[in-house]
Amino acid sequence: MKITEVVLATANEHKAREIREVLRGIEILPRPSELGEIEEIGDSLTENALLKADAVKEFTSKVALADDTGLEIDALEGKPGVHSARFAHPLASDAENVAFVLKQMENHSNRQAKFITVIALSHPNGDHLIAKCEVRGEIAHKQIGSNGFGYDSIFIPLEGDGRTFGEMSSEEKNSISHRGRALRSFFDQLKDFG
Ligand code: IMP
Fold this sequence. Notes:
The chain is of the alpha/beta class. The protein contains five helices and seven strands.
């Protein structure tokens, strides 16, 4: 079956733009404003992505697409991982999370880390489609750049030119990022879906 439109589970405009840039030819509908907060109670990024996609599918009876992303830092034994959104405290802002990571990393010379994204699609007929990809990089010593969101200003992808994601346009970031890769893999699978 051909998927012509999907409803997004995310209200994050940065994520939505990155998704639109890759999924060309598919109409991307915004997250319904009447839909309340979906609690991310899963133990993994995949569980949380599925949970969000299913909740939006149930609410709209349409094909829904969710993204769940985590930052895993080697020196912090993979933290914050699935808890990336609330690393500093349960209601943390991006700025608080970034400051918290920089503080935790103060005495670590090993700055290696990776971003992982899971893209999940939930179809009203019960089918699911999942794509998971990552990008390796390093945690910068301070924030650089004001583009993007979340931890972008402290993440230097290995395949880049030394700039953080926060210094890149969304097209540049998408060409090497965890989300760009997962979306392209998802888009490829979609052609054979159903
Ligand atoms: P979630 O996927 O929205 O749950 O995101 C988890 C955490 O990772 C949040 O703190 C986001 O701000 C952050 N995050 C998600 N995607 C990205 C990204 O592409 N770059 C930087 N931070 C991100």
